[in-house]
């Protein structure tokens, strides 16, 4: 296939492209606006691979999107481009409304116009895969069952509300216009090349530099963790084997409380790179909770596993250790980011 993938220089998008180039024969047309969290380096060998093309364009630009479809003639779309940081959405929701809702609408319309002009075999085989989050489902209580494909939507932050809106748009374009769409919702991802504002890289970098590790509330908020390489494999499986109109809940059955994640990072770093000042758990500080902080996310992936013939291969302990080794080996990458974008600022708080 020739796949048009949006947001391919982001954390998850670049992992999908690396998987497509390494493990499949598909061709990738990578559309990315190259905003603050984008990194061409994350493409690794795919960056200059003949089956990968990078186009610097914004999904909100309808003319540019129509030109991409007309020139590259994709067989499928994987839509990952999005603003995705909850704290940023609280401080400035406008960008999330503009990119996640309006941008998805613009891309859907460009895809629909293109799809309508295909011959019948190409039209039947075309897919528009929208990648979303479990945060659209809201917050679980301690004894609630995990999220599934049929869980009602109940978003609590500007970020999750914008993703919920985009999910609804995608489903509406399927039911109203017949565009063959797919939606997948996943839980927290982690792994190499994650931008240093998210929990695991943030805590890792602050701990390595001897900075405080601020944790929201009492650290009891619980998240289900999925290694990004496992997610990339799942997303390609959705594209190849998903049924038009279908929804797929992707997870790894790896729930951990935020404080447990932070403490585990400290313990692994103490082993891999001891701090002469002492164990890094001394740096943990509890701070006031953020507004609307969801207590628990967790996905039951059984339906998706059965439908796709896919299952996460990595457990959290091994995946986290591998991730921390990567950050230790790539200090030059995150050091440049800190210097360029966070000079004189604390990176953030250790909460998701």
Q: CATH superfamily membership of the domain at 2-189 and 227-253, which one? A: NAD(P)-binding Rossmann-like Domain
State the helix count: 12
CATH architecture of the domain at 2-189 and 227-253: 3-Layer(aba) Sandwich
Helix-strand category = alpha/beta
CATH class of the domain at 2-189 and 227-253: Alpha Beta
Structural write-up:
This protein has helices at 11-23, 62-72, 86-91, 94-116, 120-125, 158-177, 199-208, 228-241, 258-272, 302-308, 316-329, 331-341; strands at residues 2-6, 27-32, 52-56, 76-79, 127-133, 181-186, 188-190, 213-216, 222-227, 247-250, 255-257, 284-287. It has 352 residues and is of the alpha/beta class. It has a domain at 2-189 and 227-253: Rossmann fold. The protein has a seven-stranded parallel β-sheet, with helices on both faces. It has a three-stranded mixed β-sheet with strand order 7-9-11. Strand 1 (2-6), helix 1 and strand 2 (27-32) form a beta-alpha-beta unit. Helix 1 crosses helix 8 (228-241), helix 2 packs parallel to helix 4 (94-116) and helix 7 crosses helix 9. The protein starts with a strand and ends in an 11-residue tail after the last helix. Mean pLDDT is 95; it is low at 343-349.
